[in-house]
Amino acid sequence: MRLEIPINEVLHFINEQYRADIDLKVMSDDKIEVTYIDSLVLAIKEVKENVLFIHYELDGLAIILTGIARLFMKKKLAALSIYWNPKTKEISIDLKKIPKMDGFLKFAYVSEVHFVSDSIFLTFYARNKV
After folding, report:
1. CB-hemisphere CA count at 13 Å for 53?
2. Could you report the per-residue pLDDT of 89-109, keeping only the tens digit for each?
3. Based on the structure, what is the number of domains in the chain?
4. I need a surface site. Which of 9, 33, 87, 97 has the fewest CB within 10 A?
5. Contact 5, 122 (CB under 8 A)
6. CA distances from residue 90 to 15, 57, 76, 106, 119 in whole angstroms, order as listed
7. Residue 55's pLDDT is what?
8. How many Å apart are CA 92 and CA 98, to the nearest integer?
């Protein structure tokens, strides 16, 4: 099953849930640009049963800003099950910890994530019954 989520809905969710006014711009099938004070590029590296592994690319000022932001956001990120590794420039996100997704992910899992035009596409597969 494929689920299409328009970028404007993602922006609305982030703004309402986390009070962060950001901008998202699709760059390619696996890359999206996030702008909040400065911009950074996120690239989907891998998806393993509801965990997204994302590589990020930064330039000069963004390196300094993200280092400072990481210090201030450490506890909040841990509560959201977001692991941020600045040495490898990777972020992992456990989708089961996102409010309103955990119930659905008991029955299905995300196997792919793609960015197309102004949407994010998630590919789901049903879990095997135990």
Report:
1. 7
2. 898 988 888 777 878 888 899
3. 1
4. 87
5. yes
6. 23, 9, 17, 26, 22
7. 94
8. 13
CA–CA dist 19, 35 (Å, integer): 14
DSSP sequence for the chain: -EEEEEHHHHHHHHHHHH----EEEEEETTEEEEEESEEEEEEEEEEETTEEEEEEE--HHHHHHHHHHHHHHHHHHHHTTEEEETTTTEEEEEGGGSTTTTTGGGTEEEEEEEEETTEEEEEEEEPPP-
Question: What residues make up the domain containing 93?
Answer: 2-126
Which tokens is 57 given?
């690319």
From residue 58, alpha-carbon distances to 12, 41, 61 in Å are 25, 7, 8
